Amino acid sequence: MQSVVQDLRQQRRLLVVGVVLALVAGLAAPQGRLVVAMAVLLVAPGYLVERSLVRASLPWLPRLTIWLGLSVSLVALLYQWLWPLGLPVSTPMLWVGSLLLGGATLVTVWRGRDAVPPSPQWPLMALLTLAVFGFTLLQRMTEIDGMALPPWVDSVHHTLLVRITVETGMAPHSLEPYLPVNDLPYHWGYHVVIATLVRLSGVAPVEAILLTGQIFNALHTLTVASLALVLWRRPVAAPVAALVVGLLSLMPAYYLSWGRYTQLVGLLMLPGLALVWHQALRGYGRGWWVLVALLMAGLSLVHMRVVFFAGALLVAQALLWASMRPWPVVRSALRDAFVATVAAGVLTLPWILLLVRRTLLPAATSGGLAGNEDYNALNEGLLWVDHTRLLVALALSSALIGLWYRQRAAAIVVLWVGLLVVMANPWLTPYLLPAMGLVMLLNGLRVRHLALSLVGLGLLLLNPFFVRLPYLWLLTNDAVVISLFLPLAVLIGGGAALVSEQLVRVVRPVLRPAIYATGLIGLVAAGIWGIQTMSEVPNTVTVLATPADRVALDWVATNTPSEARFLVNAAPWLPAARRGVDGGWWLSPLAGRWTTVPPVLFSYGDPAYVAHMHALGDRIINHTPENRQDIFDLIASESITHIYLVEGRGPLQPTLFANTPGFRQIYADNGVFIFAVE
Predict the structure, then answer these.
(1) Is 202 helix (H, G, I), strand (E, B) or coil?
(2) CB of 143 within 8 A of CB of 538?
(3) Using DSSP, how many helices (H) and how many strands (E) does the chain show?
(4) 123: CB partners within 8 A, 6+ apart
(5) Ramachandran class of 470: left when φ > 0, alpha when ψ lies in -120 to 50, beta otherwise
(6) Each residue of 352-387: pLDDT tens digit?
(7) φ and ψ of 669, to 5 deg
(8) pLDDT tens digit string along 327-353?
């Protein structure tokens, strides 16, 4: 009883310190308010819902992982259900809701409800995990130091979606007035979260995307560590898994180079879903199934592809769990899982209806960003980048060690990766099913079981001679490859925990401190080595906009009319879209100006409009000095009023318009040129 009281006092002291630090940060700068708002928005909703539905049965780190995923889900679901009602998230609603959430969380934490006593080994491992998170966060922040705008293609339309949400207070189902696109079938859960943070903090959307993106990236160390901790049931697995994700693997750090923020946040939610699924299967209460439904629903709004990743993991967990349970228990869990899945569908019904209207398959519509089968080709350079060979070797060794010691965690992760590979390559299925069918047929004949024999015979017929499955555009090999950091980290963390456990058992007690010290030194050395040898992040090739572009974009926003139409440079990208090459591509999301190369979400527009914009982009891409008249004709036919170019970037160069009748240079600074059409 005395220890409980002491723990409660310590918890309250930490709470007071946290509140004071939050007040100082919030008053110091807009970025401080952004971090405080992020902490409240990503913790408070999930914490309160978890506390109201289930009894705490996990340490604080897995619970934090669940809170993160739940909070993102709840914010996205709020915007989703207000949208069909035509109700925006108003400023008073936003502030009152945030204050109520923060206050309720403070009161609940102060009362110290449902604390889970840690294992003797956990406090030290928790501190190590937090240390890894801290160093990872510092590293992530250095990666964006001096960066003018987020890199590459996705960042442009992410910023546009956040801007629309900030301006309307609603989910960005319509891109008007920036693009003629309505009923947008593109996941927007991430964007409404960032827009909410922008409105609470006053930070510009593009700065919020950069800063929160790096924080989300660093938080992967904690979520993956919590998954490793629960699956392996060994505290040592947590800091090792965190180290792999934060300082050894190039992914997810490299996501910055692509602006892959939606997949980043989706994968951040995945461990939380796996954890509540883990608890629900073990019969800890129906409340866990409610959490499963909420997380499934929210994840589908953040990134549909990650829903498939998560589904593969949940299936692997369920199969290993069911193999050790009697059929009545399995049947009951299957029923509850089915109800939770249906509930998730009901929770996202407006989103599902929109997807049905726009169709889920790109073959049924001319709009969309899906590639072709060549787009699914395995990029071996991406697969084996940096330390990946070493990490794969360590993960395979850990899997073998885990299977040797009959650890279900190893089997779960191996099965998960196998399912992902098959899902990204459906053509493998006709090769795998006949092998399973042969085993079932032989067993059926041996025990004279007609049904088993018939099923086995049926699977034998599903072979490459009769069946060929198509490429699934939603799940590509590259998407799987850049997500492998998660299972690799979980496996390596578990392998390290098993090895350290065996070493401690075989050595004399007097030598155990030396083993612990060696392990700690090894973690530190590995982290330093990882930081020093990791490839440069971000990739400079994907950085399209420079500080000079940012200055020019601000100038455009204040010195050109809102109806101005800009000619900008273009480059090939996916078959369904073209991309910009410099800061001119950012004119739409930052300055609200029309451009000849719009953000790639224009591909969801009317087919005639999409074809027209493709043609414009191709005319720019195919420009040569000999066909300059074609560009002049384009300027006239599209009523272009301004031209934005960066010297040395793209097929169009400033020399084409300098000292040319009909064009007047109105801006020139650090290689950025803007011309007015007269």
Answers:
(1) coil
(2) yes
(3) 26, 7
(4) none
(5) beta
(6) 999 888 765 444 444 555 555 555 667 777 788 888
(7) -160, 125
(8) 899 999 999 999 999 999 999 999 999
Query: Dihedral sign, CA of 659, 571, 606, 187?
Result: negative
Give the type of residue at 204. A
How much of the chain, in percent, has pLDDT values that exceed 70?
92
- 30-53 and 60-82 are packed helices; what angle lies between their axes, rounded to 10 degrees? 100
Does the pLDDT value for residue 69 go beyond 90?
yes
The predicted model gives 197-220 an average pLDDT of 97
Reported as a pLDDT band with limits 50, 70 and 90, residue 4 is low
Beta-carbon contacts of 255 under 8 Å, excluding residues fewer than 6 positions away, are 213, 217, 261, 263, 264, 482
Neighbours of 561 (CB within 10 A): 9
Residue 532 CB contacts under 8 Å (≥ 6 apart), including other chains: none
Phi, psi (degrees; rounded to nearest 5) at 663:
-130, 135
3-state percent breakdown (helix, strand, coil) of the chain, nearest 5: 70, 5, 25
Burial class of 207 by CB neighbour count within 10 A (0 to 12, 13 to 18, 19+): middle
CA angle 181, 187, 193 (to 5 degrees): 110
In this structure, what token pair is assigned to residue 371? Answer: 């590639």
The model carries a pTM of 0.92
Domain boundaries of the chain, sorted by first residue: 2-416, 417-540, 544-677
Q: Which amino acid is at 97?
A: G
Q: 279: Cβ–Cβ under 8 A, 6 or more apart, which residues?
A: 54, 57, 58, 288
pLDDT at 572 over 50: yes
Query: Which pLDDT score is estimated for 601?
Result: 94
**Rounded alpha-carbon distances, angstroms, from residue 260 to 246, 263, 267:** 17, 6, 11
Q: Which residue's structure tokens are 């299967």?
A: 281
Q: Are 516 and 236 in contact (CB under 8 A)?
A: no
Q: Is 631 helix (H, G, I), strand (E, B) or coil?
A: helix
SS (H, E, C) 327-381: HHHHHHHHHHHHHHHHHHHHHCHHHHHHHHHHCCCHHHCCCCCCCCHHHHCCCHH
- The pLDDT of residue 440: 72
pLDDT band at 489 (very low <50, low <70, confident <90, very high): very high
